[in-house]
Design goal:
With about 400 residues, this protein is mainly α. Helix content is about 40%, strand content about 5%. It has helices at about 5-10, 40-50, 65-70, 80-90, 105-115, 120-135, 150-155, 170-175, 185-205, 215-220, 225-235, 250-255, 280-290, 295-300, 310-340, and strands spanning about 30-35, 55, 140, 160-165, 210-215. The protein has a five-stranded parallel beta sheet with strand order 2-3-1-4-5, with helices on both faces. It is globular and about 60 Å long. The relative contact order is 0.19.
């Protein structure tokens, strides 16, 4: 479902990020970012979108935001040696998970060095190469945490579109508790869902229906054809039946070590809807419902019979942790504003718009790696004005 309209921006005192409109004609190549609370089904949606014959969305990476945070360290990207250092940093760090993309690091490095001298261009080259691997014209990225960094992503890719997947917060909390990589407690898990919902509200009002779209996990798995058709309309794409079979590309896209995504190898189903009832303690469910407040009802989630009222001490603990998280976010925002004052270059992507298929149509089957296509000339060709980003979305 579409969220707010652009009219909501003026009530919040936010600027229109796309003054004069986008002015895009023909098939879109706007980047697509899938966002949401962790364990809300974003990997499932990633695979559904990756099953579209024009879109490629890789496994989660750790180089995009890290490169943006470290951007001042690479110096002036007009200098070829600095672009080489950036390219080697992106492709060579194991922590960045570039290796999960299945790309030729040397070829990507060369393309970045020969490309436009901005960070967004370098990162766009990586994602464009991934799309080219599958014969796709359009790329995207999926990481739940991007919901807090939409402003950063819009500085890099001003024409980006955001798809926010929302799931019952109690199911997200229950699933987070079981993840081997989640090192925090239930209080943090509850806070994460509430933060994601509140961030989504702000983005809906700021970006409007051209750049922000919400859908719910429960509706997606119950009626994937209807929900994906509506999503494709938002993206400016035709619906493709392969999108309802996300288990097909899963072995190619989801790294095998991520065993917590094993359900993506199975057909879409509703078995995990409402599973929190048997996985949360009554006080945990009660804490979630109390902390979420009207946010649950807003999306049609009913209170559970299994929940019980949390104790005053439990709710006080949540309030304290939530406040500490907000303070940490504010400190991070302040550090980011300081970094912006030291930026040696603009950061926006200057890659030219994609023109035509990246590979011959016969080679663009969803599960067959495509041969490398000739590279488009690296000529700066920005498509739209850069948005003015409110600090709270930086």
């Amino acid at each position: 479902m579409l969220s707010s309209t652009t009219a909501g921006m003026s009530s919040l005192g936010l600027d229109d990020p796309f003054p004069g409109g986008l002015g895009l004609d023909g098939p879109s190549d706007r980047p697509v970012f899938v966002i949401g609370c962790p364990r809300s089904g974003t990997t499932l949606l990633q695979l559904m979108l990756h099953s579209h014959p024009r879109i490629a969305i890789p496994a989660e990476n750790r180089f995009l935001l890290a490169a943006y945070t470290a951007r001042c360290e690479f110096g002036d990207l007009e200098d070829r040696d600095n672009r080489l250092a950036l390219a080697e940093w992106i492709t060579g760090r194991e922590a960045g998970r570039f290796g999960d993309l299945g790309l030729d690091a040397a070829a990507v490095t060369e393309e970045i060095v020969e490309g436009p001298p901005t960070l967004g261009s370098a990162l766009g080259i990586v994602f464009r190469a991934y799309a080219r691997r599958f014969g796709r014209q359009r790329w995207g990225d999926k990481r739940p945490g991007h919901v807090r960094y939409a402003g950063t992503l819009l500085r890099l890719f001003p024409d980006a579109q955001f798809v926010h997947l929302i799931r019952d917060g109690r199911d997200c909390v229950a699933s987070l508790k079981e993840m081997p990589w989640f090192r925090k407690d239930v209080y943090h898990a509850v806070a994460m869902w509430r933060e994601a919902i509140d961030a989504g509200r702000g983005l809906a009002a700021w970006l409007g229906p051209d750049a922000y779209y919400e859908l719910q996990y429960e509706r997606l798995v119950a009626d994937p054809v209807e929900e994906l058709a509506s999503l494709c309309e938002f993206l400016g794409e035709d619906f493709h039946p392969a999108m309802i079979e996300p288990q097909d590309p899963a072995p190619w896209v989801v790294p095998s070590q991520k065993v917590w995504h094993d359900l993506t190898l199975s057909p879409v189903g509703t078995a995990r809807v409402g599973a929190w009832a048997g996985r949360l303690e009554p006080w945990e469910a009660g804490l979630a419902e109390a902390a979420f407040g009207e946010r649950l009802a807003e999306y049609g989630y009913e209170p559970g019979d299994e929940a019980c009222r949390p104790s005053a001490r439990q709710f006080a603990t949540f309030t304290k942790i939530s406040a500490h998280r907000r303070l940490a976010h504010r400190k991070a925002d302040l550090q980011e504003r300081r970094r912006r004052r030291r930026e040696p270059n603009p950061v926006r992507c200057l890659l030219p718009a994609a023109t035509g298929p990246q590979v011959p149509p016969a080679a663009a089957a969803p599960l067959v790696p495509a041969p490398r296509a000739p590279e488009a000339p690296a000529v700066p060709a920005p498509r739209i004005p850069a948005p003015r980003v409110p600090d709270r979305f930086a």
